[in-house]
Amino acid sequence: MDHAVKQPLLEVNKLSAFFRAGRGEVQVTRDVSFTMAPGEMVGLVGESGCGKTVTGLALMGLLPPASSRLEGKILLQGQDLIAMPPSAKRRLRGRRISMIFQEPMSALDPVFTIGHQISETLRAHQDVSRAEARNRAIEALARVGIPEPTLRYDAYPHQLSGGMRQRAMIAIALVCEPQLLIADEPTTALDVTVQAQIVDVLGELCTRMGMAMLFITHDLGLVSQTCSRLVTMYAGEVVEEGRVDDILLRPRHPYSSGLLRSLPALTQRKARLPAIPGRVPVRGDMPPGCRFQPRCAHAQPPCTAPQPLRAVQPQGEVRCCRAEELILPGVLPVERAA
Amino acid sequence: MNRRQLLLIGSRLLQVVPVVILATVAIFGLLQLVPGDPAAVIAGEYATAERIADIRRMLGLDRPVWEQYVVWLGHAVQGDLSASLITGQPVLDEVLRRLPNTLLITVLALVLAVLIGVPLGILAATRVDRPTDRIVTTIASLGVAVPNFWLGMILVGFFALGLGWFPTTGAASLTQDPLRALSHAALPALALATGGIAEITRQLRSALIEVLSSQYVRTLHAKGLSNARILWQHGLKNVSLTLLTVVGLVFNRALGATVAIEAVFAIPGTGSLVVASATNKDFPVVQGVVFVLVLIVIGLNLMIDLLYSLLDPRVNRR
Ligand SMILES: Nc1ncnc2c1ncn2[C@@H]1O[C@H](COP(=O)(O)OP(=O)(O)O)[C@@H](O)[C@H]1O
Ligand code: SF4
Ligand SMILES: [Mg+2]
């Protein structure tokens, strides 16, 4: 596939999110930039609190308008979503971009049937009759692997298990066949066996429908199963971006390397390696230079200068001045990988 | 009606028994503390002590208190609420004659509370922390605190005595002269309604704020539904359960408050009947009113529970 000639589906350019706090503001993400090609599956990883959900909600235009503010650009096929009037953005949501959330238990309206919640989405965007909406909702339920979809159409959320609810959520998100799905930790709240099924369903539907997916997770194992590209965030910034295969083998940023090494499933080691020592810096107490510096084993004097996100060879981007000189371990020990 | 709903009715009816017994025992006990003697009232000003004692014997007042209660209860369960000690008239007739006046102002108060409280609650919840919300919330906190009999007196002073728009006191039959009945009921119902308006506004506001900031409403926004649809379809259906609960509460409170309001507006209802009978220690009348009102409250709450099970799909299968 030649991505260079294709117009990107999504282009996020220096996106910063601010929340109002008292008199002032706090910045929770800074200069987040990445692109997605049509049909591409990109993983967005990072520790809890690093700004993954905020970024996802920003793409959807779902951050609270009264208490938040965005800077930068979000281009969907060249159209700037931040500059777009709210009513036009609303018509994009659920039709061209959809989002599913972490908690399938509380993400569905408890007093309406699953079927109603799917067909109302369809009817909000397309001029279809009730009967046709019903048929297409039942099709959508079947597509996400819900058994007896005709019966399930009339079920209420509390009558379904967590996994089935997340499938119903996916059916809602995909019923209008959007170009981009933002999946915010869709499996975190589920049992391990169910997690794999949900990830499979998502991957399969993306491929079948030619839909792009931004897969937000803190589980690199799941990313390696589904995604071709990976964006790593740390403390509100993108610190590395590249092909999943490249990064698994040789991460360029010490933080990505730390994330990979604390991953038991991929290293095939019995004991989980200790997570990266130290704590994420708190807002208002950000180190002036590299934000990872207080926890970085490779820190040196140049690291106290601000670190730009820059391209590295053969491809990818890293926010680390020592990226070229460091040889960092991925999921495989360096000796064996070399 | 499904099995669960039948079970609900059954268990509710069983609950009626202890509630009625408790309420009537409590009233009976309290009445013993009231000074005065119905026999002395009947005998008149210049009666001899013997004459009074005779009357006491005749009425069964010489018997132990518990025995009087058991006799009363024995009749009551057979649908006979005994007769007034003072007038000798059957209590049930008197209660049923006065009940429409009381129910008229109570139901009217409830209707006013819903018609005014619901829009105010929605208005405030959709404008959280903006000036409209602040004003509504402040007025609602005042409304909860204002005693309704005091407000009743103000209303009478202003609209009835001052402007002459409404009659000051009394009541009329709704079936014989509906317009006059409503104009009599308007001010007392408004006085009764204020607490309810404030309560419904506050509860609906906070319930709706919770719903509108819930995760499932975020999903509705993510699906691209319009704000109007999210509010009027999903928001309202989700808060309707809270609304039902509050409506029940408001009705119960308003019914209790009729005692004071009927005194202010001189309405010949059950509330004023209780007050008059209690001062005479006419316990069969007081008991009879309490008995009937408790049944009404329980009936209404049962209806609310049934509606609840229709509105909330989670109730049926738990
Ligand atoms: N509505 C909000 N108001 C203020 N701060 C917020 C809000 N939502 C998220 N944040 C802050 O933004 C940061 C990033 O949060 P989030 O995007 O949820 O992290 P995660 O990567 O775990 O999804 C957190 O520090 C969080 O406290
Ligand atoms: S810039 Fe320096 S401190 Fe930051 S990650 Fe790279 S080596 Fe570590
Ligand atoms: Mg999150």
From TrEMBL, chain A:
Signal peptide coordinates: none
Gene Ontology terms for molecular function: ATP binding
Domain of life: Bacteria
Keyword NAD: no
Alphabetized InterPro entries for the sequence: AAA+_ATPase, ABC_Ni/Peptide_Import, ABC_transporter-like_ATP-bd, ABC_transporter-like_CS, Oligopep_ABC_C, P-loop_NTPase
Cross-referenced SUPFAM superfamilies: P-loop containing nucleoside triphosphate hydrolases
Domain ABC transporter: 10-260
Keywords: ATP-binding, Cell membrane, Membrane, Nucleotide-binding, Transport
Keyword Repeat among UniProt keywords: no
Subcellular location as annotated: Cell inner membrane
Membrane topology of this protein: Peripheral membrane protein
Main localisation: membrane
PANTHER family noted in UniProt: DIPEPTIDE TRANSPORT ATP-BINDING PROTEIN DPPD, OLIGOPEPTIDE TRANSPORT ATP-BINDING PROTEIN APPD
Similarity section: Belongs to the ABC transporter superfamily.
Name listed for the protein in its UniProt record: ABC transporter ATP-binding protein
From TrEMBL, chain B:
Domain ABC transmembrane type-1: 99-304
UniProt keyword annotation of Signal present: no
Membrane topology classification: Multi-pass membrane protein
Matching Pfam families: BPD_transp_1, BPD_transp_1_N
Broad class of where this protein is predominantly found: membrane
InterPro entries, per the entry: BPD_transp_1_N, MetI-like, MetI-like_sf
Keywords for this protein: Cell membrane, Membrane, Transmembrane, Transmembrane helix, Transport
Cellular localisation: Cell membrane
Transmembrane annotation, as ranges: 12-31, 103-123, 135-161, 239-265, 285-308
Entry's family note: Belongs to the binding-protein-dependent transport system permease family.
Designated name of the protein: ABC transporter permease
The organism of origin for this protein: Teichococcus aerophilus
Taxonomic placement: Bacteria, Pseudomonadati, Pseudomonadota, Alphaproteobacteria, Acetobacterales
